[in-house]
Design brief:
This protein is of the alpha/beta class. It has two domains: 204 residues, Rossmann fold; 204 residues, P-loop containing nucleotide triphosphate hydrolases (Rossmann fold), CATH 3.40.50.300. Helices cover 39% and strands 15% of the residues. The chain has an eight-stranded parallel β-sheet, with helices on both faces. The protein has a seven-stranded parallel β-sheet with strand order 10-11-9-12-13-8-14, sandwiched between helices. Helix 2 runs parallel beside helix 3 and helix 6 packs across helix 8. The radius of gyration is 22 Å and the shape is elongated. It binds adenosine monophosphate. Adenosine monophosphate binds next to helix 3.
Length: 435
């Protein structure tokens, strides 16, 4: 299938083609036509599947040419992290480059005043993390009563991060008649409940089997003693001449310490985690993307949703406590058709974590042994400390069966057909204007 078969207008197709995309990814192919028809969507898709364009493109088309004069917020995207909010906004700019659409990010950790100024000037699309948006709502800074499209991105992670009450409060501010799009990598009972309350007869889209890792990621486990992990990592980076490596640790402290040590080894490294200010996080990501730093050490929450194109190497310096996080971590590589490797340095303490991950994947991960780094059999396993990653309870498992609620994709929602058709018509006219 080609992009021009999805019903997108000429200016959006041009923006897509400027990006060098040739064919839509499965989530784009499945979601875009449904969204253009005005349906609610329940989509199972991880980062790396092209989901952002999957909702941004049709959202831009539905918004059409922005209203002149007063510009109410017409689309709201909620994301779990500031980084993801920034990336979604970047996508709105990228795909909306031939339209006069105004979008902004709203998140905490930075001054609220410039955000208020921007809101007051009028903005069509808001991409926000829940906490700061709720602050603006409570202070009467923002009016969401004209929102037509509401997107919950990475809903599972938002619930993990304890945002459910904030999300409910925000939803109360939205008009009843609106289009809702929910994206989640996993489907716990809580996500099902949220979806049942939020979505109106949604089209359900699942692009990859849940909790399965991208086929193109080559996964390897290197057994190594804890005290020698850093040395082995430095050697692997040097010997393999790896130029862009995302490394995961379980804790902020561990991320800082490793970054310091790698720098001492002469490998330019930065760390990104929730304990850093927004400015430092943005700079670390920018430098890494630009190739100024070779290694970025990240905790799970900070890395969630990071979009780094063609990232070739992911290293689990420490395995995560939550097996699903392994899937999210290695999803950073082999993105959108690229090849990649995911390497895990596993010490004796982490055997149970590895077993849990292999159970989730339903297969073993190939082990490789590096000469000179043989495991010292005299070392006894010690319990892995929990809690440093700043995470609450583990995610709700591999997902509840899809039994109730959503109808199969393909049938239109009766109440919104008219709206969808109307949109299609107006989209058609904006297409002719643009071409
Ligand atoms: P996402 O899952 O939205 O984070 O997107 C993952 C990556 O895939 C991003 O770097 C996008 O720029 C890229 N991408 C999105 N759509 C396509 C496409 N149709 N073809 C190639 N790359 C794409």
């Amino acid at each position: 299938m080609l992009f021009n078969e999805l019903g997108l207008s000429a200016d959006l197709l041009r923006a897509v083609s400027d990006q060098g995309y040739e064919t839509p990814t499965p989530i784009q192919r499945d979601a875009i036509p449904h969204i253009l028809e005005g349906h609610d969507i329940l989509a199972g898709a991880q980062t790396g599947t092209g989901k952002t364009a999957g909702f941004t493109l049709p959202m831009l088309q539905i918004l059409g040419d922005p209203l002149s004069g007063s510009r109410p917020v017409r689309a709201l995207v909620l994301t779990p992290t500031r980084e993801l909010a920034a990336q979604v906004n970047e996508s709105v700019h990228t795909y909306g480059k031939y339209r006069p659409v105004r979008s902004m990010e709203i998140y905490g950790g930075v001054s609220a005043r410039p955000q208020i100024t921007k809101i007051n000037r009028g903005v069509d699309v808001v991409i926000a993390t829940p906490g700061r948006l709720l602050d603006h709502i409570r202070q009467g800074n923002i009016d969401l009563s004209a929102v037509e499209i509401f997107v919950l991105d990475e809903a599972d992670r938002m619930l993990d991060m304890g945002f459910i009450r904030d999300i409910r409060q925000i939803i109360k501010q939205l008009p009843k008649e609106r289009q809702n799009l929910l994206f989640s990598a996993t489907f716990s009972k809580e996500i099902r409940e949220l979806a049942n309350n939020l979505l109106d007869n949604p089209a359900e889209i699942q692009v990859a089997a849940r909790n399965t890792t991208a086929d193109r990621v080559e996964q390897l486990v290197y057994p190594v003693d804890k005290a020698r992990k850093r040395e082995l990592l430095s050697e692997m980076i040097g010997r393999g001449n790896w130029q862009q490596v995302l490394v995961f640790t379980r804790t902020k402290h561990g991320a800082n310490r490793l970054a310091k040590q790698l720098n001492q080894d002469g490998i330019t490294t930065d760390a990104i985690h929730g304990g850093k200010g927004q400015g430092a996080r943005t700079k670390a990501l920018r430098d890494f993307k630009a190739g100024k730093t070779r290694v970025l050490v990240a905790t799970d929450i900070a890395a969630r949703g990071l979009d780094i194109q063609k990232l070739p190497h992911v290293v689990n310096f420490e395995l995560p406590h939550v097996p699903e996080d392994y899937v999210h971590r290695i999803g950073r590589t082999a993105r959108a058709g690229q090849d990649g490797t995911a390497v895990s340095l596993v010490c004796i303490d982490e055997q149970k974590l590895l077993k849990d991950i292999e159970q989730l994947l339903k297969r073993g991960i190939k082990k490789e042994f590096v000469p000179g780094y043989e495991v010292d059999k005299r070392i006894k396993a010690e319990p892995v400390q929990k809690g440093g990653a700043g995470r609450g309870k583990p995610r709700g498992g591999a997902g509840a069966p899809r039994s109730k609620g959503p109808r199969p994709a393909g049938r239109k929602r009766p109440g919104k057909n008219a709206r969808g058709a109307q949109r299609k018509r107006s989209n058609g006219s904006s297409r002719s204007r643009a071409s």
